[in-house]
Specification:
two-stranded parallel sheet, 2 strands, 4 domains, 19 helices, mainly alpha, 67% helix, 411 residues
C-alpha cells in the first residue's frame, strides 16, 4: 500500500505525471489494497486531492462497498450519489454535480444550519455507512435542515476556486435543494434497495421527486438505480409515473447500462459469489421489464451477461486452482481439519458462483472447468497417503452427489 502513497499528495488539478500514475495505480490495485487506501484517505481533514485520485476507482468502490465513516459532506450528499460526477468529466448542464462542488456546498450548509449541523456530526461520530440507524436518524435531520436552508444560500467561499460559476451555483443548489426536500422517502427506498427496493417504496420516492420537477426526478432515479438490486423494476416505476417525461426513465436506464461493469474478484470467492448472484438478479429483472426488452437495451444486456459469465468462469477456475487444489496438493491430499474446513468453505462459495455463471449463460464453459477440477481431485485422491474421502467430499460440493458417486466407483 505504501507504494501508492507519496510523502505528500500531488496537486491533482495540475494533472501531473505523478498524479496520473497514482490514479492508474489505485484503479488497478487489488481490492484489499484499495480498501486500505480508502481508509487512509478517509482520515484526511482535506479530501480534495484524495477524491481526485480516487475518481478512476469509484466504480470498483461502489462494488466493494468498504465501510466508510459517516462524514457531514458524505451524509449530506448521499441522496445525490447518482448525479455526482468526476470534476474532469463534468460538463455544464443541468442534472449533475461535479465532485469539486461538494466541499464548498457542504461548508455553506454547515454554516447555515449551525447547531443542527453540530448535533448531526456529534451523533454520527465513529459511525459508518453500514449503520443504517445512524443514517436514518442523522440523515433525515440533516436533509430537512439543508432543504430549509438551501433557498437562502449565497455563493460560498471556494466556489470560484473550484472552477465554477455563479450560474453553476444556482443550478447546483436548485438540484441539491430539490433532492433534499424528497430525501425522506428516497432514503426509505435506498435503505432497502438491496432487496429491490419494494415497488411501493420506489413509487413513493419517485412520486415525491416528480412533484419537484423532471430534474429532481432524474436525480432521485439515478441515485436509486445506483443502489437497486432490480434496476429494471425501478426504471419501470419511473416510466409509469403520470406526467413523467416519456424518455426520462429510458435515458436513466441507458446510462446505468453504459456504466455497468461486471467485476467478479478472484481473490475473494464469497464476495465473487455474492456479486455474481446480484448481477444475475439485476440482469433477469431487466429482461423482464418493457424498458429492458427494447432492442438497444436488450443488446447491451446480452453483452453484459456474456461478460459476467466469462468473468465468473475465469474467477471459478482461478479460485479453484489456488484455494482448493493448491492447498490440497500441498498437504499431500491429506490436509488437517482446519485446512479441509477452509477448502470446503471455499468450494461451497465456488458452487454458488458456478450456478450464477451458468444462469448468466456460461454452461458449456463451466462444464469444461468442472471437468478439469474434478479430474485433478481424482488424481489427488490416488496420491499415496491421501485421504480419499476429502477429494470425494469436494467433488460432491462442487459437482453434486452423482459426480461424487462416480469418483467413489472409479478404480
Amino acid at each position: 500500500m505504501t507504494a501508492l502513497l507519496p510523502p505528500s499528495l500531488p496537486d491533482a488539478a495540475a494533472l501531473s505525471a505523478e498524479a496520473r500514475r497514482l490514479r492508474h495505480a489505485l484503479a488497478a490495485a487489488p481490492d484489499a489494497v484499495l480498501a486500505k487506501v480508502v481508509a487512509v484517505f478517509d482520515g484526511l481533514s482535506d479530501r480534495r486531492e484524495a477524491d481526485a485520485l480516487l475518481d478512476a476507482a469509484r466504480p470498483r468502490l461502489r462494488r466493494l462497498r468498504p465501510p466508510r465513516p459517516i462524514t457531514f459532506a458524505r451524509l449530506l450528499f448521499l441522496p445525490l450519489d447518482g448525479v455526482i460526477v468526476d470534476a474532469r468529466a463534468w460538463r455544464r448542464r443541468e442534472g449533475t454535480l461535479p465532485r469539486s462542488a461538494i466541499p464548498p456546498l457542504a461548508a455553506a450548509v454547515r454554516d447555515a444550519i449551525g447547531a443542527e449541523a453540530a448535533a448531526v456530526e456529534a451523533a454520527s461520530a465513529g459511525r459508518s455507512f453500514a449503520d443504517h440507524a445512524a443514517i436514518d436518524a442523522g440523515g433525515r435531520r440533516l436533509w430537512r435542515a439543508a432543504a430549509r436552508a438551501a433557498p437562502a444560500l449565497a455563493l460560498p467561499p471556494g466556489w470560484a476556486e473550484a472552477g465554477l460559476s455563479a450560474e453553476d451555483f444556482r443550478q447546483a443548489i436548485a438540484l441539491a435543494g430539490g433532492v433534499w426536500r424528497v430525501a425522506d422517502p428516497l432514503w426509505a427506498a435506498l435503505a432497502v434497495a438491496t432487496v429491490g427496493p419494494p415497488e411501493d417504496l420506489a413509487r413513493a420516492a419517485l412520486q415525491a421527486a416528480a412533484a419537484e420537477g423532471p430534474a429532481i426526478l432524474a436525480a432521485a432515479l439515478a441515485t436509486l438505480l445506483l443502489k437497486a438490486a432490480r434496476p429494471g423494476s425501478v426504471a419501470a416505476v419511473a416510466a409509469g409515473l403520470p406526467g413523467a417525461p416519456p424518455s426520462l426513465a429510458d435515458r436513466a436506464l441507458a446510462h446505468w447500462l453504459e456504466e455497468c461493469r461486471p467485476e467478479i474478484p478472484a481473490a475473494a470467492p464469497e464476495a465473487a459469489a455474492r456479486m455474481a448472484e446480484a448481477f444475475l438478479e439485476a440482469m433477469d429483472d431487466l429482461e423482464a421489464t418493457p424498458l429492458g426488452r427494447r432492442p438497444e437495451h436488450r443488446q447491451r444486456i446480452a453483452a453484459l451477461r456474456r461478460e459476467a459469465a466469462e468473468a465468473c468462469r475465469g474467477t471459478f477456475a482461478e479460485a479453484a486452482a489456488t484455494a482448493v487444489l493448491a492447498p490440497l496438493a500441498a498437504a499431500g491430499g491429506a490436509p488437517d481439519d482446519a485446512t479441509i474446513a477452509a477448502i470446503e468453505s471455499t468450494a461451497r462459495q465456488l458452487r454458488r458462483l458456478e450456478r450464477a455463471g451458468r444462469a448468466l449463460g456460461a454452461a458449456p464453459a463451466f462444464d469444461a472447468a468442472l471437468r478439469q477440477v474434478t479430474d485433478r481431485l481424482a488424481a489427488l485422491r490416488a496420491t499415496p497417503g491421501a485421504n480419499p474421502a476429502d477429494a470425494v467430499r469436494l467433488v460432491e460440493i462442487l459437482a453434486g452427489p452423482e459426480a461424487a458417486l462416480r469418483l467413489l466407483d472409479a478404480p
